[in-house]
Amino acid sequence: MLQPMRVPAEGLPDRVTIYEVGPRDGLQNEPAIVPLEVKAELVARLAAAGLTTIETTSFVHPRWVPQLADAEELLRRVEKAPGVRYPVLVPNERGLDRALALGVTDIAIFGSATETFARRNLNRGLDESVEMFAPVVARARDNGLRVRAYLSMCFGDPWEGPVPIAQVVGNGRRLLDLGCEQLSLGDTIGVGTPGHVTALLAAFAAAGVGPERLAVHFHDTYGQALANTLSALRAGVTVVDASAGGIGGCPYAKSATGNLATEDLVWMLSGLGIETGVDLASLAATSLWLAERLGRPSPSAVVRALSQELTEDEE
């Protein structure tokens, strides 16, 4: 079966936007440098499969993330498809300068819900990181760019343990108050559970931040990513981050395994009758193609399940 049976459920959105993070968050932790031409073809294949938001790369210093040292060259090589957004991650004003020079229209900043991870990831504390982001967001908005914020460690931190919900909401509000249009709530080490997701989103709503300003970003470390996503959808969230083939992790948190696989997400959403605009067979074929180039099987359950049918179709 290349598609699930569609059985809609009440209380869910009619359509979900998938924020594809494979080319950036997915590849950033790969031990071997992925060739530039593979990255460019991956982005093109994802757009052809119907994904309309594809986070393409990051302007983090190459010393910290060597995999993305070719950011400028990649952005010059990618042929922009009509109606597709190609956001990039920027850590500071220097990164913003690089993005502006290449005509980028969408950027993302990346904050933390905990002090320890902020210092390990950004080499500065929470207050200092917000001070660093403020001019980035202001200048980006002045130049007409869309700005998204990531908030890491929203459900648990490997150094600090459980993260209080009020702390997550407070730090998320600080990023939104800078002028970010959207806040992506990250379960960086994959310890969240559905009830926790529901409680966190309710707390944001009580603080005046509705689901229309939020996205969710789940890792599947404990197999909870799809269940957590369903809880978020029931709370009104309609933007979900995912990575083609389930690749990815976090170079600063060793317990962070792969992202929610885009194919697994599309299978679930399709079965619920929720539109995404994504062609599942095309997407799964892309992840099989990428897995061959990475030299290992795809972590995605759906890609593995469809692999034989897709291979037979090619033959």
UniProtKB/TrEMBL annotation:
Record InterPro entries: Aldolase_TIM, HMGL, PYR_CT
UniProt keyword terms in alphabetical order: Lyase, Metal-binding
CDD domains given in the database record: DRE_TIM_HMGL
Keyword presence, Metal-binding: yes
Enzyme Commission no: 4.1.3.4
Descriptive protein name: Hydroxymethylglutaryl-CoA lyase
UniProt key word Lyase: yes
Gene Ontology BP terms: ketone body biosynthetic process; L-leucine catabolic process
Chain ranges of the Pyruvate carboxyltransferase domain: 16-284
Pfam family, one: HMGL-like
GO molecular function: hydroxymethylglutaryl-CoA lyase activity; metal ion binding
Family classification: Belongs to the HMG-CoA lyase family.
UniProt-listed PANTHER family: HYDROXYMETHYLGLUTARYL-COA LYASE
